Every structure is written in C-alpha cells, then in structure tokens.
Amino acid sequence: MPESARLTHTAAVLLVRDLRAAAEHYRDRMGFTIGTLFGEPPTFTIVNRDDQYVMLKQIADPERIVPHKSVAPGLWDLYFWVEDVDALHEELAGRGANIEYGLCDQAYGCREFAVLDLDGHSVGFGQIID
After folding, report:
1. How many domains does the chain have?
2. In a domain, 50, yes or no
3. Measured between alpha carbons, how far is 69 from 78 in angstroms, rounded to an integer?
C-alpha cells in the first residue's frame, strides 16, 4: 500500500432515540464534547473525547436499536483503551454514569469497566495490564 494511503481516525456509529439527549448524556456522564448538530431538528452529531470519536444518529424507529449485548451477552457496542482506567472509573462514577459493571481484571489482560448509555449501548473502558 502506498504510504500516502493510510488510515488516520475511526468512529463508531450508534443509533439513538433522541439525539440531543444522547449527546448531552455522552457530554455530562462521560466527558465527551458535542460537535455540530446536523438537521432541523438535529438527527446527527459526532461526540469526541481525547481524539476518540463516536457518531450518534437518531432514527425514527427506536425498535431498530439493538445493543450488541442483546445479541451476544457481554459484548460491548464501544470499547476504549485508556491510560488510567481507575481514574476514569472514578471520574465517570462521579459524573453519575450508569456503571454496567465495575472495575475488574479480565483473563484477557485488561483491567476494565463498562457503562450503559441512554439507549442501552454498553461502552467499555479498559487498560492493558501486565
């Protein structure tokens, strides 16, 4: 592959019931910044934190929102690797995030926890441990 053709960023897309409420939840409970709201009324935005991006798209039929854990138990919709998972857990708990499961060390070498967003998406945060 030519050196000029390289990937620079990625963003997951989550379907949401209420864009404004979802974006505010990511801001208030998880420390993300809300980008431009697109549409009138708004139906799309990108939230970000520490150069990590999540696209939020409001859909008309909320029955079509299917969090991954409802198909495969224990599976996240998003997973972020972090540098200080204990500090992040303390921050998000202090912000009132809905902690799905608390800090734990996993057999696959991550210390992690997960939160649930307003639409039931599981968002995992983990730190690789030695």
Report:
1. 1
2. yes
3. 11
